[in-house]
Amino acid sequence: MTVQENISSLSIGMVLFQNLTQLDFTGPYEIFAKLPNTQLHLLAENLEPIRSERGLSFLPDTTFDECPALDMLFVPGGPGVNPKMEDKNFLDFLKIQGEKASYVTSVCTGSLLLAAAGLLQGYRATTHWLSLDLLAMFGVETVKERVVIDRNRITGAGVTSGIDFALVIAAELFGDKIAQEIQLGMEYNPQPPFQSGSPQTAPLDIIASVTAATQNRQEIRRQIVQRLLSQN
Amino acid sequence: MTVQENISSLSIGMVLFQNLTQLDFTGPYEIFAKLPNTQLHLLAENLEPIRSERGLSFLPDTTFDECPALDMLFVPGGPGVNPKMEDKNFLDFLKIQGEKASYVTSVCTGSLLLAAAGLLQGYRATTHWLSLDLLAMFGVETVKERVVIDRNRITGAGVTSGIDFALVIAAELFGDKIAQEIQLGMEYNPQPPFQSGSPQTAPLDIIASVTAATQNRQEIRRQIVQRLLSQN
To answer: Given an 8 Å threshold on Cβ–Cβ distance, is A183 in contact with B197?
Structure first.
């Protein structure tokens, strides 16, 4: 899938919305912004600051209305996914851009938005571990892997997977050397102090407390997905 | 060093400046923002948007003049470090806040700014691998480790080390359980697609190309450090 030889320029649209998880977006941004001949568009409904989950605010640079055709559509996740799954204008924008784009991609619960826009049905894809069952409700073949590629759909698991996800994309599109240079430049030689980064490795009490703390948001999310599916 | 028992609230000041490397700051932010009873201040000289290295812009929320006393001072790095090493007002702010803070911390070349402000002399500390020799010129005992703790100075290596760095801080201050919950919530189970994240593991041609691409900036940086040291 390496397109290094025949790609003259790459246009990536990163979709922003209120209450997103900022690292879902800023992890991949750090890598995408260093790809050669690549233009990033920070897309939002309007140019007002985007306030992320815990308050950090970013400035988008391109409105949905002014968005050019994209080679790659990218959607992050976060608590703000909940209202966006029922925002028709937002989903229409994803659908129109996603159907034209060469690559349709997401990190974390961004895949719920792609699925709500009808862009993941029949594809293998992943999402944050807490939302895998919700993604499956949309008719997506969910996979418990950190980065999943199925034809031109590329999805990452929760939050920090976006760094691995974007390095995989860098290698796919521009070759291993570019991806390795970016990895060395950002000194991505991770050494987590604990083995608690996945429900496959975390202690049971840690899984229980994280699940309990997010239960309310996840239950509301489940009701939204059920409502969406009952309307179709 | 765990202060979980006796800490009623923690105030962290994250110092922003033009042309910083955004992931140096957004990686730790994602973790710091989830600490209990913790207030983050996004500090800058004024409240104008901060444009990071590749264009992504953030909004600070507190000016240096209005900054309260901090429990922890945090400084990220990036190309913007070069002019800031010679910005007396900026360094004075770091020095005044750093001397009062319980913890003085940095990621990537933020440690060059701490050193330029006189806050790291005689301490063990680290920085981005390309700048270790420059940090040593300040009389800092440089260490090729991902996270270095020496008394109340805590420094991280390049860019993505900020995630490991902040999880280590979370564990030190609030205990392992809080740190592990945050790690699981952000699904930090890294799987880099290559082993090129460190000059100890990257292929020689990758090291050579990254070194060549940054040679000009590093040479200017060296001249700045030499100028600073000749003035003292």
So the answer is: yes
> What end-to-end distance do the CA atoms of chain A give, in Å?
35
| Binary contact (B158, A58; C-beta < 8 A) | no
B208 to chain A, any CB pair closer than 8 A? The answer is no
Domain layout of chain A by residue ranges: 10-231
Predicted local confidence at residue B1, as pLDDT: 47
Pick from A29, A128, A186: CB nearest B158 = A186
* Interface membership of B210 toward A (CB under 8 Å): yes
B201-216 pLDDT, tens digit per residue, is 999 999 999 999 999 9
- pLDDT classification of B9: cutoffs 50, 70, 90: confident
Active-site annotation of A, residues: 108
Catalytic residue numbers of B, as ranges: 108
Place of tokens 């800023």: A26
Q: Is the dihedral of CA B26, B153, B97, B136 positive or negative?
A: negative
Task: Give the tokens for residue A97.
Answer: 């851009």
The CATH class for the domain spanning B10-231 reads alpha beta
Q: What is the mean pLDDT of chain A?
A: 96
For B45-71, the pLDDT digits (tens) are 999 999 999 999 999 999 999 999 999
Within B2-157, where are the H helices?
22-32, 81-84, 88-100, 110-116, 132-137
Q: Do A183 and B192 touch (CB under 8 A)?
A: yes
DSSP B15-40: E--TT--HHHHHHHHHHHTTSTTEEE
Per CB-CB distance under 8 Å, the chain B contacts of A191 are: 146-147, 164
